[in-house]
Amino acid sequence: MEKIKFTDPDTGEEILFFCLEQTKMNGVTYLLVTEDEEGDTEAYILKEMTQEEEDATYAMVEDEVELNAVGKIFAELMDDVEFEI
Asked: Are the C-beta atoms of residues 48 and 59 closer than 8 Å to each other?
């Protein structure tokens, strides 16, 4: 499972996430990430905001409609995982 390093823009703190899955909806890239590689854990859906050469900027999806739509796609892609949105 791929590890991705993110930097919190407010604190500058580096956070490591494991990327479980990636998808595109309406031309926008979304990542399903978690802080723990295995076991029951919270997952987050991140939306690509900008792409500059090798660096991309992501933000957590907070809009309920968007979160539900993308969450359904990830649930279909990962049918062996149980989701609660």
From this structure: no
- Count Cβ atoms below 10 Å from residue 73 Cβ, excluding itself: 16
Which 3-state string (H, E, C) describes the chain? CEEEEEECCCCCCEEEEEEEEEEEECCEEEEEEECCCCCCCCEEEEEEEEEECCEEEEEECCCHHHHHHHHHHHHHHCCCCCCCC
Query: Domain residue spans in the chain?
Result: 2-77
Task: Report the chain (85 residues): mean pLDDT per 10 consecutive residues.
Answer: 81 90 94 84 90 81 94 86 63
pLDDT value at residue 51 = 75
Q: Model-level pTM? A: 0.82
CA-CA-CA-CA dihedral for 80, 36, 24, 52, to nearest 10: -160
Q: How far apart are CA 45 and CA 31, in angstroms?
A: 6
